[in-house]
Amino acid sequence: MHHKTLHQKNKGTVVVSWTGGKDGCFACYKAMLNGFEVAYLLNFRDLKKTAPHNLNKDLLFAQSEAIGIPLLCTGFVSFEAEFKKVVRELNSSGAGIDGAVFGHIALHEHLVTRICTELDLTLYVPFWKHDTEQLLSEFIDAGFEAIIVSTRADILDEEWLGRKLDGGFLHDLRSMKPAIDPCGEYGEFHTFVIDGPLFKNRIAVLKTEKRLENGYWFLDITDYSIERKAR
């Protein structure tokens, strides 16, 4: 993917495409490490269908609160059109957004390039074409904590729901389901990040329910709290 090279001296204000999962969260962290100011997390929800990564909005706002970066959540018929609309509205109100961050690894290259070109934004896609097993290991080693909240039922059964992404998960995935991308890049599973170096406080998952719907297993988080982390 061709995009402007970002250096520490080339700091700017960015928005992050956000689903609540590991890739966007890790990309947000990388952007901050590279000297960018993250002004908003942007969550877009498909109005035409129920996507397996569409988490309960309350959970996303809990993440936003725990991290300390505001979240904007909006529905879309066209992701591209809605993304442009939101950024243009932000900038017309003086937000000064000059970059966008995406956690994509292998998909949607032309879409995000086109969006950023038309908005004249710097595109930051830190994990593009990275080795996904190495990427998951880096995510875990950085101190992030995430759990699996949905799976494709024909690939991963309900026993995988609620599992933490850790060394044991990676080992089991490799030994039991070697064909699955370690980052679930092709929709095999989706995650919810509950803690990490970005987080000022952590999300404690207190109660969950499992359900099967439209070929996907879902872990509904029915009770949770935001817990203060030891400073």
Descriptive labels:
231 residues; alpha/beta; Rossmann fold; putative n-type atp pyrophosphatase, domain 2; 2 domains; five-stranded parallel beta sheet; four-stranded antiparallel beta sheet; 6 helices; 29% helix; 29% strand; globular; disordered N terminus
Q: Spans of 5+ residues with little confidence (pLDDT < 50)?
A: 1-8
What is the CATH class designation of the largest domain?
Alpha Beta
Can you give the helix content as a percent range? 25-40%
Q: What CATH architecture of the largest domain would you give?
A: 3-Layer(aba) Sandwich
- Say which CATH homologous superfamily of the largest domain is assigned: HUPs
Distance between the termini: 39 Å
Largest sheet: 5 strands, parallel
Strand numbers in spatial order across the main sheet: 3-2-1-4-5
Helix and strand succession?
EHEHEHEHEHEHEEE
* Overall number of domains: 2
Helix and strand composition category? alpha/beta
List how many beta strands DSSP finds.
9
Question: Compute the gyration radius: what is it?
Answer: 17 Å
Q: Roughly what is the average pLDDT, rounded to an integer?
A: 89
CATH topology heading of the largest domain: Rossmann fold
* 3D shape: globular
Counting H and I runs of at least 4 residues, what is the number of helices? Answer: 6
